[in-house]
Amino acid sequence: MAKLMISITHAKDNTDKATVGFVVANASVASGVETVVFLSTEGVYLSQNGYADDIHEDGFAPLKQLMADFAEFGGTIWVCSPCFKKRELDMDTLVDAAAIVGGAKAVEFLTTGGSCITY
Questions:
Q1: Domains in the chain and their CATH numbers?
Q2: What is the tens place of the pLDDT at every residue in 26-51?
């Protein structure tokens, strides 16, 4: 089975990249590809319920909807543990399908046949 990681390093600092990352992730998971979104650096803010509620790039579905669809279609969201801790975010308000992981998890995914696109 094909495996794809979408690495999203942006949130409100670049809503276009955050949105397009989830558009591609949805296309991937809907195609039957094992798909993981890896949130790191500023992207970890997207792991918080409510954060993406007001992000809506012209021409795309609202980011909140894209993220909900991704989880509903069976996608997985990994949140970089050190990035999450650095920003002192709340573990109790993670979005659906999100889990805090270390970099080793991403490395394992990629070294066992996964490809990666970064936004």
A1: 3-118 (3.40.1260.10)
A2: 999 999 999 999 999 999 999 999 99
